[in-house]
Amino acid sequence: MTMNSQFIHSPFNMSCVKGLLESGSLTSLPSEYAFPTSPDDIKFSQEEVIPTIDFSLLTSGTPHQRSKVVQDIGEACCEWGFFMVINHGVSERLRDEMVKVCQSFFDLTEEEKREYAGKQLLDPVRWGTSFNVNVDKTLFWRDYLKVHVHPHFHAPHLPTEFGDISREYCKRSQEVASELLRGISESLGLEASYIHKTMEMELGHQLLVVNCYPPCPQPEVAMGMPPHSDHGLLTLLMQNEICGLQVLHHGNWVPVNPLPNAFLVNTGDHMEIVTNGKYRSVVHRAVLNNKATRISIATGHGPPLDATVSPAPELIDSQSHPPAYRGIKYREYMELQQSKPLHGKTCLNHVRL
Description:
Layout: H1 17-22, E1 52-54, H2 55-60, H3 63-79, E2 82-86, H4 92-106, H5 110-114, E3 125-129, E4 143-150, H6 162-187, H7 194-198, E5 205-213, E6 225-228, E7 234-239, E8 245-249, E9 252-255, E10 263-267, H8 269-274, E11 284-286, E12 294-302, E13 308-309, E14 328-329, H9 330-338, H10 346-349
Parallel strand pairs: 1-2
Antiparallel strand pairs: 2-10, 3-4, 4-5, 5-12, 6-11, 7-10, 7-12, 8-9, 8-11, 13-14
Helix pairs in contact: 3-6, 4-6
């Protein structure tokens, strides 16, 4: 892929939404961003609230408290595939610094950011817009920065402080994810270290994804990110003070309003594969507003790229719970997802038996 091919479909020859908005030439929403509506778009539930998990009780609570939290994690994974984590120990200072340095990246000049444009899926640092403009039927009102941060750490060289801040933040988010995976393993009736060992998480793949959703002139027409599920085992997400995440739960879109200083955590497609469908990945989307820029920072946690992910033998029963998914290399799954329009759980359907 050439550098320019990543952006040939963008209106006004602008390479990103932020640049389009700041060009001064935008008077209405370009037709390329008009997202098709569906009956699902009118189903909302303001009453439902995603579960909250107190991380401190998982790591330093009494045996009874830990047992109760493990049970709560299992119920959250089974019922929602999404939960909030509080008292996780990642300092507010570090979280604030991470948000600020990510905002500073998107504030770089077009020329400075373009160094990372049009790269391949597994290149260390990649900046772009929409999801994959070569296959997207509708462009999404979103610019992104994707950085592979484990097992080998990478970072853009600008802003200069990005490397140090993101290294510390990604390390701390990985520690939180590791403890949550222990709780999830126990909730499945397995040893606490089961997922960590079988998925070789010491060498696992961690991807930092920073999303920038600028104000949109017609937020009810465009979409930040379409309904989709994530690859990997777990995704940890934080954001600035602007909300926009919605979770599909029992056919309703539930707006997520995170508690201060909380992480949002969701199970990914590979958690569904490993658990043979007991814990399912959850469909979610990002909606827009016309007043402020939303920044979301996600770290995706998965096995090594060359690991083959299959249902855990301990969760298979030939009579009542036969294998529901075929094994697939993590790298192959990521490439498959990137090569097709992002839509619901269509990628996972390729490995269903």
